[in-house]
Request: fold
Amino acid sequence: MTAIAIGSDHAGFEYKQMLAHWLRDNGYEVRDFGTNSPDSVDYPDFVHPLAEAITNGELERGILVCGSANGVCITANKHRGIRAAIAWEPELAELARQHNDANIMCVPARFISEENARAIVSQFLNTAFEGGRHQTRVSKIDC
Reply:
């Protein structure tokens, strides 16, 4: 199966660990960009290397976890070619893939259950981009 990038800040550390373990149990190779403890950190230190690994083609998709998912999402989207989206329900992850070709899913650990986090990541990884009219729109994102 595909290798998946994963990263978090301190607020998302426990969910990151849980998701990485769950992904490995489901046959994915996981490349963990940190953080490696629940101690307070600055999320850009982990988001930028993960996003760069996707923009340079080392990995196709990534998962970022923080308390609200806002900080990691904003930071990831500073990179050309990154289409990071926040989802708190699986249907949002599905639409982010189908319509926006999202390549990073941002998970708000403080606002969802572990079960919902797994469902969101599963939907993100198992939904294809629809292309078509959506490709025209996605092509206009980078400036």
